[in-house]
Amino acid sequence: MERVLIADIGSHVDRDVEIRGWLYNIRSKGKLHFLQLRDGSGRIQGVAEENTVGPAYAEAIRGLKMEASVKVRGRVRRDERAPTGFELTVADVEVVQNPDLDYPIAKKEHGIDFLLENRHLWLRSSRPHAMMRIRDTAIMAFRLFFHEEGFLLIDTPILTGSIGESAGTLFEVPYFDLGTAYLAQTGQLYLEAACAAYGRVYNFGPTFRAEKSKTRRHLTEFWMLEAEVAYADNEDNMRLQERMVSAVVTAVLAGHRDDLAVLERDTTPLEKVTVPFDRQDYGDAVKALQAKGSAIQWGDDLGGEDETVLTKMHERPVFVTNYPKKAKAFYMKENPANPDTVLCSDLLAPEGYGEIIGGSQREDVLEKLLARIREEKLPEESYGWYLDLRKFGSVPHSGYGIGLERTLAWICGVQHIRECIPFPRTISRIYP
Amino acid sequence: MERVLIADIGSHVDRDVEIRGWLYNIRSKGKLHFLQLRDGSGRIQGVAEENTVGPAYAEAIRGLKMEASVKVRGRVRRDERAPTGFELTVADVEVVQNPDLDYPIAKKEHGIDFLLENRHLWLRSSRPHAMMRIRDTAIMAFRLFFHEEGFLLIDTPILTGSIGESAGTLFEVPYFDLGTAYLAQTGQLYLEAACAAYGRVYNFGPTFRAEKSKTRRHLTEFWMLEAEVAYADNEDNMRLQERMVSAVVTAVLAGHRDDLAVLERDTTPLEKVTVPFDRQDYGDAVKALQAKGSAIQWGDDLGGEDETVLTKMHERPVFVTNYPKKAKAFYMKENPANPDTVLCSDLLAPEGYGEIIGGSQREDVLEKLLARIREEKLPEESYGWYLDLRKFGSVPHSGYGIGLERTLAWICGVQHIRECIPFPRTISRIYP
User: Fold this and answer.
1) Which residues of A touch B161 (CB under 8 A)?
2) Which residues of B touch A386 (CB under 8 A)?
């Protein structure tokens, strides 16, 4: 008998097939048993009638516990009432392993801590499955976007010397005889080297922040995509970002209406995510926020609350541009039109989600960059190779980083980004 | 004037264009200057005649140092003698930044330590460029293979509790109030959880080994792809692996003849990489090695030298199957036909390259797995969630891990895997 995946069942109507999977639920009505089956590719209902399957199978079926692994053989029937349009008339059931214990994740509501502690099992539920399918598609959409744009993927290192944005949030790793290495919180500086070699480059990998932040927007380990382009200013940068975000949203909408429905995501706001996105100068944003009662002063970085308020004024993602120099990292290029600000932009996702991208034009003038490194009292000797990039063929260049899980939280309309990664890491969790 | 990429120059013949890039070399013959230009997308020669460009440009050109960043404007000419088939007749040159210093990487041969110390600049050379282009294609080929096969990408965590293969080679990371976290040296256990949820899964990310090995096959940070399939035995596993490897080799051959030529790779052996690959039982391999003079005894793992000898007996990659249990990890499934061995296979790349994949069927019987964990004196309490997978719907399942850089070293025919990653990390290097 042919073994088939539930996802492919539609091409086997009225044929006998074998499904290998798990029993995620069972309901019985006298001698009629409704087996809810899943195999990772999809879900289907198997209907087993005791008179048809015979007493041995009937007994086996009655003894099944949730999440038993089973091979179920039977005939595929078209059934308009079934959510997928198909049903399986069960001929027999082969039990691979039937749990001794009751499955810990039942229908009842569980607290988030319990679910996270059982993440290895929780992944089997329909909500995480929908999320992981969307995550998979979004990642492929990101990669295909850059592939088709002629970017070269450059995987930047995780283990790095003392170089990066802010030393206070670095994880430390004892490293042989070299002292301490740090887990990279950005690959940007490496991408700047690579973009001087290959023009247009990106990375996409895990990123680490030892921040003691316990908010719905923070993980200690998350995935980030960074892109860097030579001979590009921050205007080019924003145009690249909006095309990229729009491509990813389009890919998710095209392939995952069903999964978005499982996540109870209203897709109306997503349909509006079309190029170009809105743009707002930082100064104007501060005024708008003050008018709404925020205590923000010119010079402050936008807080999470400010971002939420601001994004609710926009239907589409909005770029906030030209932040004060003192609120941003040392490598951002001074704005010639106003040297108190830098040529940068944060992209805020709508509906209150806030920052998903931080980007800027980079300081390409050696003397200015060096002055900023000294101003910030960064360890100059660690930046030797980075300064080389301004000595040998420096060019205007720009880039950005987008947080994958924050982007997914917005696209999927979920509250906390810990739902958007298979095994979330927070300051209080490294298990399972 | 239209700005074009060198890669697209063929569609601009006899038109005036602007190229933005770098001068990687210059040669002069009296008043004739040959500018070797690169922009990351390709390379082209610009010919500047002093009488044509005028005295100001001529002076600028004469003053250019290697790796100066320049915008060069001129007319595209078809030229059969040029390596790319095109040449640029230079009209003018705009210098973006001309180095004060001589570029450190000259034509002369440099030692590997010097090149690694200047990896941020070395990346600009033709050999690393060829390698990074092939790496980009190989990574996309891996991902598209699994995408098209219906696998779900599951990014497994890097920061983990005390769980993994061998505690002796783990990097340690102080982790808030939770004590010590470790950098994952495999995501396999997590993928096993995910494959019980989604059937067919893979990951692809950086992996860490704190091994004090200073060989041409070792990096402390490298990229690994792992796949895990439910309801699959090790025979299915090997079939998946050979199709995957063959798909990647095919993609590289299809797109990178020119880059393989830069790397001086004879592609004849690669043409022979067709499915099915050879298979050899471990016991037979030991006998064959002994006949060649190796000191290996039944029960030993294959050393690097043994692998080299063995692969030279095969034209194609070869699976060595059913290793002794004591030489392999605790999670591999006992071979019912010979309980001293396990259902596993290592895939050795030909031409002396050796192991690129380690795979096995996993022990799916709770009692046997538990016995192995106790035999190996592993911390049982850390494996609670992993043991759950054998309690709730355990199924036969198999998987493997393939090292990206080792695979690239073989495909590209390079000696040392440090060439196969943008910024290599070894026990003595985390700079740049």
Assistant:
1) 430-431
2) 120, 432
